[in-house]
Structure formats: structure tokens, C-alpha cells
Amino acid sequence: MMRVFSPKLTVCYEILFLCALALGLAYIANMHNPKGLSWEQVPLKTTTVVQQNDGLPEAGTVGVVTTEQALDLFTEKGAVFVDARFPEDFSEGHVPDAVNISPGMFSEDAMELLGPAENQTLPLIVYCSSLSCRMSNELAENLLMLGYSNVYVYEQGFEGWIEADGLVEMSR
């Protein structure tokens, strides 16, 4: 007959209790942290661009471009493409002439690559790996905070660019 409180079973109960306690405390700490992880996906405030000539999104918002619009802007050289991926991913392939502003890059370095915000006349098209990658949205928001107002996100990312047969450049 098995005893309810055998030494081995007691250890298992203690481990289970400590794991539950750790999960509970982590959940509470996350909920009270202003930069805590969200349990649900919150959509980015965006404005869809119907045509490039129809105007810009309101100040303080990030526009969204479709694959067709991104390809047109690339063909017309009507935008600066900004790759938000890590340098290793950028070197394996990127939109030709894109500027790589990787996560963690200081704002001074980003401004040096793009030039002063007040001199930026072309739209900035920010992209990362794919639709599930959020680094492009974060970078676009940071660029807005730095004073760049003509900022758009290409949500399909580099995967969408390749699927649409967009040109690809490799870094050496």
C-alpha cells in the first residue's frame, strides 16, 4: 500500500508547488511591468497608402505599403528601403541599396545612415524577415520618435519580397 506522504512523493509535491509559485510570481511581475509581454497581439496603429501621391499618413502614425507598392517604389527609386534585420541576415540577402538598421543600433548611428530627419524627402520603407517579424514596426516607431515623418512598413518582409520576385542583393 502506497503512503500518501512518502519521501519521494513529498519531493514531487514540493517541486510542483515551487513551479506553480514561480509561474504565478512571473505572471504577476509581468502584469505590473510597463514593458511586460502582452498576452494578446495588439495591432500597430497604421494607415494604408492607396497611392503614393495621395498624401502622407498623419504625423505620428506609420503607413503600410503593399508588395505591389513596394515594388513600384523600388523601381521608380522613390523610397529608401530600411532593413530592420540583424546584420547576419542582411548580408545573406536584402533589397538592393537598402540601409541596415539592426535592433539595438543607437539612434545616432541610424541618423548617420539616413541623414537628418529634416532633410529626408523620400519615404522610408522599413521591412524585416516576414509578416510575423515585428522588428520593422518597432524600428518604424523609433524613426518617428527621431523626427522622420514619412515612414512606412512593408509588412510582408523580405520573404514577401522574394516571393514577388523582387531583386535581391548579397553583401560580401
UniProtKB/TrEMBL annotation:
The record, for SUPFAM superfamilies, names: Rhodanese/Cell cycle control phosphatase
Q: Which InterPro entries match?
A: GlpE_sulfurtransferase, Rhodanese-like_dom, Rhodanese-like_dom_sf
Which Pfam family is one of those matched by this entry?
Answer: Rhodanese
Show where the Rhodanese domain sits: 75-170
Q: Which UniProt keywords apply?
A: Transferase
Q: Which PANTHER family match?
A: FAD-DEPENDENT OXIDOREDUCTASE (PTHR43031), PYRIDINE NUCLEOTIDE-DISULPHIDE OXIDOREDUCTASE (PTHR43031:SF1)
The name this protein carries in UniProt is: Rhodanese-related sulfurtransferase
Q: Which organism is it from?
A: Desulfobaculum bizertense DSM 18034
